[in-house]
Design brief:
- This protein is 7% helix and 39% strand.
- By secondary structure, the chain is mainly beta.
- The longest helix is centred in the N-terminal third of the chain and has 27 residues.
- The chain is elongated.
- The N and C termini lie far apart (128 Å).
Length: 709
């Protein structure tokens, strides 16, 4: 009997020990929080989306306007769009000692400031945060009695690739792991202060701060920063995981499939066979496209059939129009801009295109006209120079008269009660997509200026020793401030892009333009050029942020044309003109084009019922009118061309024209080659206009005869 009691007690004791051990083992092998993101619960009526904690069955809320699941490391993963989506977990587990927080992530772009994969109660000075900084480096921090203690990785995590990060506190130190490998460790001198039973945030900062790299504080709003990419298998443990615990991660990372994210180049443009303007819906990437509350065809693209280039008005650039080269390099000539104590007032601030709008006015085989209208606003949508009597602020209408040869007249009309106040009218800006740096699209000798004598001067952003400087080249970054062009009478600008066709800007030499060059706001450790990403495609109010990497769409500015004579002026408006486009010519090779526009040869008109009105530089076209009732059938034009006053691809607009076909003769020879001339009818409120373009350069007197049918 005694032996039986001893045996029973032994069995009972061993059973209890086994049960306790089993309990400890189960606790050790199970996290206290686990979000797998394999399923989303959706209530569309209340706009509520939740995910279930695999441990507690608690439902945690996903906030944001665009929430979807994608293929993950295990099962599905959660896509956070970087604009509105994040995860809010309430009543999260209590942590009293050692703990671990871990998860998988794949980034579409780096956050604009440190952004957590998991952050608990940081605003109260308690808890922890595991996340990624604006340089794409992982970091882990905990609150202690002596303040925050943090560790940070030294290497940038690649975009569009799954990585695993983990932060561990073992009561003595904090350790950061990346892909199952220990990255860095730091001892903790005082006790951890947990943020127990508080909200755990994932994908959003708990406080509003300005982006890392902010340049102009007054024009940039403090914001919450959001994660852009995928997250999966978010776990919290109430123990410190060891290196052995990450063996499965190290094994898994080797054969992981690429995440369901794509690289983000600037939009692919429609490949059209004919010259002309079309409405389009230009796609960028999934999350960004769904951020916009638009439908139909919100954008405008002008395509050319004489060369491989396009002209684009895209909402991602606030409809600021861009010339796009044959290999996809985007360039714009900026907009009207003014300033206040709240920063810049410009269409670049119109992140949602609330005031910036575009529409096609004319579309014929010979030319098209596009109208872009915008308000000059700051980042809080305040208009500039508001008139106390009318309530109107500064507005601008820009008309682009675009021809098949890749040349357009840009007519800018600023409407303002303070036209005498300082406004900017031109800035040469390159725009890049993800993965592009300024050096990828620009040669160091990025700008060539020319004057009407055919002289050229090169401007370089390369930093070189004085002994290595090239003759005839000015090195911009050696200057302390913005400075004027060193070439007397410069009026032609060529941007030296890494393309066959290059953007150009021309101002009438009689208008005496003043140019300067960007020589400030450099981060030489990042790029030889000034480089920012607060625009384009960004959505948060910002007046300037250095690009830290090529992870986002970005831009680089090169030159300004500050002042030149107005083409027209009224009490409340000013109009200025320039020629813009793409060319294979050198800068000095654009002198004939400039001369044919700024000093067009005189026109004489002959024929019954036809009258000539002269040359209109705002349209780059000679103006005629049919004055006979019922229209006119035939007329001839004589242009007094010479080498000094050439006509380069002259265009003619004949108002009140009612014929659908025409026959053209040049110097009494019938033109049978349809590539040498184009024409079309443009309907107006006052009737139809004939638009005629001749694709030829004349440096001798020429007679042009037109027969309508």
């Amino acid at each position: 009997m005694k032996n039986f009691e001893i045996s029973f007690r032994y069995i009972l004791t061993m059973s209890l020990c086994f049960m306790v051990f089993a309990g400890f083992s189960q606790k050790a092998d199970t996290p206290v929080m686990w979000l797998s993101f394999d399923e989303i619960n959706v209530n569309n009526k209340l706009h509520i989306r939740t995910v279930e904690d695999q441990i507690t069955n608690r439902l945690d809320t996903i906030r944001g306007t665009y929430v979807v699941l994608k293929d993950g490391v295990h099962g599905k993963s959660l896509l956070l769009d970087g604009y509105s989506a994040y995860l809010s977990c309430r009543n999260t587990p209590s942590l009293s000692g050692s703990f671990t927080v871990e998860g998988w992530l794949a980034m579409g772009a780096y956050p604009t400031n440190f952004c957590p994969l998991a952050e608990q109660n940081m605003l109260s000075g308690k808890g922890f945060s595991l996340g990624i900084n604006s340089l794409g480096k992982p970091g882990f921090k905990i609150a202690t009695q002596n303040g925050w203690v943090n560790v940070e990785g030294s290497k940038t995590i690649p975009l569009l690739k799954w990585v695993h990060i983990a932060g561990i506190y073992d009561g003595i130190s904090i350790t950061l792991y990346l892909n199952g490998e220990k990255v860095t460790r730091k001892e903790v001198q005082s006790a951890f202060i947990p943020g127990n039973n508080e909200v755990l945030l994932s994908g959003i900062t708990s406080q509003k701060i300005r982006p890392e790299g902010t340049i102009r504080q007054l024009g940039t709003e403090p914001v919450q920063h959001l994660f852009d990419g995928l997250i999966d298998e978010l776990k919290v443990w109430d123990r410190a995981l060891t290196e052995e615990d990450f063996a499965s991660v190290r094994k898994e990372i080797i054969n992981l499939k690429a995440p369901a994210l794509k690289k983000r180049p600037l939009p692919t443009l429609p490949d059209l066979d004919n010259f002309g303007a079309v409405y389009a819906n230009l796609k960028f990437y999934e999350s960004w496209d769904n951020f916009w509350r638009v439908s139909g065809l919100p954008d405008v693209v002008v395509s050319f059939d004489q060369f491989d280039g396009q002209f684009v008005f895209w909402r991602g650039t606030s409809y600021i129009p861009h010339w796009v080269t044959e290999n996809g390099i985007w360039f714009n000539n900026e907009f009207n801009e003014t300033w206040s104590d709240k920063g810049c007032h410009e269409p670049m601030s119109d992140k949602r295109c609330e005031y910036s709008q575009v529409k096609i006015i004319e579309n014929t085989p010979a030319r098209c006209v596009v109208h872009w209208r915008y308000a000059l606003i700051d980042n809080w949508y305040n208009k500039a120079n508001i008139d106390s009597l009318t309530g109107w602020g500064d507005w601008t209408d820009e008309l682009y008269t675009i021809y098949p040869d890749g040349v357009a007249v840009r007519s800018q009309t600023l409407h303002s009660s303070k036209t005498s106040s300082r406004h900017e009218w031109h800035e040469g800006i390159i725009v890049m997509g993800q993965g592009q740096r300024p050096e990828d699209v620009l040669y160091p000798e990025a700008v060539v200026m020319a004057n009407m004598d055919g002289n050229e001067h090169v401007y370089s952003w390369e930093l070189v020793d004085s002994d290595a400087k090239k003759e005839g080249t000015t090195y911009v970054v050696n200057k302390k401030d913005r400075w004027l062009s060193e070439l007397p009478g410069a009026n032609i600008q060529l941007i030296n892009t890494r393309s066959s066709f290059k953007p150009f800007t021309i101002i009438n030499p009689d208008d005496e333009p003043e140019w300067d060059f960007y020589s400030g706001e450099f981060r030489r450790d990042i790029s030889m050029f000034p480089w920012w990403n607060h625009w384009p495609t960004a959505t948060k109010p910002s007046d300037g942020r250095y690009a830290m990497d090529s992870d986002r769409a970005s831009h680089s500015s090169l030159t300004h044309a500050w002042e030149w004579k107005a083409y027209k002026e009224t009490e409340y408006s000013e109009t200025r003109l320039m020629l813009v486009g793409l060319t294979k010519e050198k800068a000095s090779g654009l002198v004939p084009l400039t001369q044919s526009w700024s000093h067009a040869p005189k026109m004489s008109v002959y024929g019954e019922g036809i009258s000539g009105k002269g040359y209109e530089p705002a349209e780059r076209a000679y103006q005629l009118e049919c004055v006979r009732p019922g229209g006119c059938n035939t007329f001839s034009i004589q242009l007094s061309c010479s080498p000094e006053y050439p006509a380069v691809n002259p265009a003619f607009v004949v108002s009140n024209w009612d014929k659908t076909e025409l026959v053209l003769s040049i110097n009494s020879e019938k033109v049978s080659d349809k590539n040498l001339f184009r024409y079309g009818l443009s309907n107006t409120a006052n009737g139809s206009n004939l638009i005629l373009l001749i694709n030829e350069e004349f440096d001798k007197p020429v007679k042009i005869e037109v027969l309508g049918k």
